[in-house]
Design brief:
16 helices, 2 domains, 4% strand, Zincin-like, 417 residues, four-stranded mixed beta sheet, single chain
Length: 417
C-alpha cells in the first residue's frame, strides 16, 4: 500500500478510535451523586439532567465523527478527489480559478454534509435540554453570512497562497506564512467593529452597579478597555459566557445578556478579572506567538510535500496541482494536528488555573470566582466528572471541579500543579 495512503487512513481511524474510547471511559466515569464541592449548585434534578445531556451529547458526537470518518475514507479510496478535479478542470478556467473552484467545491460539499448534524444539534439536542433559543430564520441567516465571509476571506487568502506557491519558488512558504499572519491579525483588529456585529447586537453596558464595579476593577488594575458591551447571546442559547475582542486600544469586553441575568455584579467582576488575568499573565501574547510560529511550521512542512508524486498517487490523481496538494497535505497533517491539539489544550488548562488564581488574588474574593464557576457549570449542564482521557484530548478548560478545588485550596496561587 502507498505509505502516504496508509498514514492518512491510519490516522483517521486512530483519531476516530480515540474518540470512541474517550466516550466509553467518559460514560463509565459518571457518578450517581455530584461531588461534595458542587452539591450546593447541583440538586438531584439538575445533576440527573446534566448526566443525560452529557450522554446524549457523546452519542451525537460519536455518530457525527463516525459519519465524517466513513465519508472521508470512502471518498479517498473511491477516487472522489480525482473525480472532482476532472469536473472542475472541465470548466476550462485557468490554474488559479480552477484551484479556487476545487477548494471552494470541497468546502461547499463539507458544509452541506455537516448541515443536518448542525440542525439536529441546535433544534433537537439543545432544545431538548432547554438551551436553544435560535429560530430557523436565525439559523439559516447565520449560515448564509458565514458562507459569505468564508467565501470572501477564503478566496483572498487561498488565491494569494496559490499565487505565491506557483510563482515564488522554494521560499514561497515564507510569503504564504507572512500573508496569512497579516490577514489573521487584521481580522482580529476589525472583528469587534465589522464582523461580530453581523451576527450579534452589542450594546454598551448601562450605567449602574455592575458597570461601576467593572470599571473600578479595570482602573485599579491599570487595564484599559475601549468599552464594556452586552451581547444578545440569548438570541441563540440560554448558556452564558464572556470574552475579550480586539487588542490594544480596541480591546473590549463582551458580556452575554444571559450571564448578566444569572450572576451577581461581584461574580461578573470575578469573570472580568479572570479575562484580565489572561492578558496580564501574558497568555494572549503567548497564544498569538505560538499561533504564528505554528503557522510558519505548517507552511514549511507543506512545502516539503506539495509536489510529492506518492502523495498524489495515494488519492488516485491523474493530474498534479498545487491546489490539490494543499488539500492532501491537510489530511496528511492529521496525526501531527492531533498531537499539537493535545499539547495546546494542556497549556490552555494551565493558563485557566492561573487566570482563576489571578482573579481571586486581585479581587480579594475567591468565593465570587468559585460561585461564578458553579453557576456556569450548572446552567450549562457541565459534566462534573469527565474521564482524564477526555480532558486530555478535548478540554481547553480544566473540569470545573478541579478549578473549584484549586481556588479553595490556595485562592491566590498563580500556577497549577
Amino acid at each position: 500500500m502507498n505509505v502516504y495512503l496508509a498514514v492518512i487512513i491510519g490516522s483517521l481511524l486512530a483519531a476516530w478510535l480515540l474518540g470512541v474510547l474517550s466516550d466509553l471511559l467518559n460514560a463509565r466515569a459518571m457518578r450517581p451523586e455530584p461531588p461534595a464541592e458542587l452539591a450546593d449548585s447541583f440538586d438531584a434534578e439538575t445533576y440527573a439532567k446534566s448526566q443525560a445531556y452529557t450522554r446524549e451529547s457523546m452519542i451525537f458526537s460519536s455518530v457525527a465523527d463516525t459519519f465524517n470518518t466513513v465519508v472521508t475514507i470512502t471518498v479517498v479510496l473511491a477516487g472522489g478527489f480525482n473525480l472532482l478535479d476532472n469536473i472542475v478542470r472541465g470548466a476550462g478556467f485557468g490554474p488559479l480559478a480552477t484551484g479556487l473552484l476545487y477548494i471552494g467545491a470541497l468546502g461547499l460539499i463539507s458544509g452541506t454534509l455537516s448541515l443536518p448534524f448542525e440542525a439536529y444539534h441546535t433544534f433537537v439536542l439543545e432544545k431538548r435540554f432547554g438551551f436553544n433559543t435560535t429560530t430557523p430564520a436565525t439559523f439559516v441567516l447565520d449560515r448564509v453570512k458565514g458562507m459569505g465571509l468564508t467565501a470572501l476571506i477564503g478566496t483572498v487568502l487561498v488565491a494569494a497562497i496559490l499565487l505565491f506557491l506557483r510563482e515564488a519558488g522554494p521560499y514561497a512558504w515564507l510569503l504564504c506564512w507572512g500573508f496569512s499572519v497579516v490577514v489573521s491579525l487584521a481580522l482580529t483588529y476589525v472583528a469587534p467593529t465589522w464582523i461580530l456585529p453581523l451576527f450579534n447586537k452589542f450594546t454598551p453596558l448601562e450605567p449602574g452597579e455592575l458597570r461601576d464595579k467593572l470599571e473600578r476593577y479595570a482602573a485599579r488594575e491599570g487595564f484599559e478597555l475601549s468599552g464594556i458591551f452586552v451581547m444578545d447571546g440569548s438570541k441563540r442559547s440560554t448558556k452564558g459566557n464572556a470574552f475579550f475582542t480586539g487588542f490594544g486600544r480596541r480591546r473590549r469586553i463582551a458580556l452575554f445578556d444571559t450571564l448578566i441575568r444569572d450572576m451577581t455584579p461581584d461574580e461578573i467582576t470575578a469573570v472580568l478579572a479572570h479575562e484580565v488575568g489572561h492578558a496580564r499573565l501574558g497568555h494572549i501574547r503567548k497564544r498569538l506567538v505560538t499561533g504564528i510560529l505554528k503557522a510558519g511550521a505548517i507552511f514549511w512542512l507543506m512545502s516539503l510535500f506539495l509536489d510529492s508524486a506518492p502523495l498524489f498517487a495515494a488519492f488516485g490523481m491523474e493530474h498534479h496541482s498545487i491546489y490539490a496538494g494543499l488539500v492532501f497535505f491537510v489530511l496528511l497533517y492529521t496525526p501531527l494536528s492531533l498531537v499539537l491539539s493535545v499539547a495546546a489544550n494542556h497549556v490552555s488548562r494551565k493558563h485557566e488555573f492561573q487566570a482563576d488564581a489571578f482573579a481571586a488574588r486581585t479581587t480579594g474574593r475567591a468565593g465570587d470566582m468559585i460561585s461564578a464557576l458553579k453557576k456556569l457549570s450548572a446552567s450549562n449542564l457541565s459534566n462534573l466528572t469527565p474521564h482524564p482521557l477526555t480532558v486530555w484530548l478535548e478540554y481547553g478548560h480544566p473540569p470545573v471541579l478541579d478549578r473549584v478545588r484549586a481556588l479553595s485550596a490556595d485562592p491566590g496561587r498563580t500556577t497549577a500543579q
